[in-house]
Amino acid sequence: MSDHELAAALATEAGRLLLDVRTELAEAPADERKAVGDKRSHDFLMAALAKQRPKDAVLSEEGADDPVRLRSERVWIVDPLDGTREFSELDRDDWAVHVALWQAGELIAGAVALPAQGITFATPTVAAPPAAPVAPRIVVSRTRPPAIARRVRDALNGTLVEMGSAGAKVAAVVQGRADVYVHAGGQYEWDSAAPVAVARAAGLHTSRIDGSPLQYNRPDPLLPDLVVCRPEYAEAVLAVTQ
């Protein structure tokens, strides 16, 4: 099984487990669903990667950060449940599972599963989104829309689209349901690694908000800002964010 196939398979199966948690704990408090979902998905991904790629290191949101990854040539960067708030709300489908592989300085494989939508996007080939509308749609957090996104909306004469997890936001751009995702409120490598790998496979622009490249597997996994957009909007977006 190739790294691309493995990323897709693991993200999809972790998503199935999370759907099971939703069913099993439908009557439980939201916090319990969050905790059980995070743990079950993390435990599955860690066990599967240990079996399938025993020589590789792993950086997971839900695991202890092992510094051995900084000496490793290959590191899997995973978010077992991106969008725990949305996952805990049983009527929402804007949450995701992220599985990405970093090797020798680059993201070389990645998958974003949207379990409640029955979709997994995975490298190496992702269909490009359909043609953009006249007014670009800027996807933002439904609870914490950043000021920078509002500035981009104003500059591009666009509209804001509220959505949950980072993975779901990037997937919306890939799907053609949005055109720009700009974030400056603080994220970590696991929030964007798999979505960025998928976005690049779809031909989208990806960068920091100052236009510099996104870098992964650094000592500090904080990666606070991000731009993912259709390439025709990149210059205009970066003119606002830089």
TrEMBL record:
InterPro entries: CysQ/Inositol_MonoPase, Inositol_monoP_metal-BS, Inositol_monophosphatase-like. PANTHER family: 3'(2'),5'-BISPHOSPHATE NUCLEOTIDASE 1. It holds the Pfam family Inositol_P. Keywords: Magnesium, Metal-binding. Gene3D superfamilies: 3.40.190.80, Fructose-1,6-Bisphosphatase, subunit A, domain 1 (3.30.540.10). This is 3'(2'),5-bisphosphonucleoside 3'(2')-phosphohydrolase. It catalyses: adenosine 3',5'-bisphosphate + H2O = AMP + phosphate. CDD domains: CysQ (cd01638).
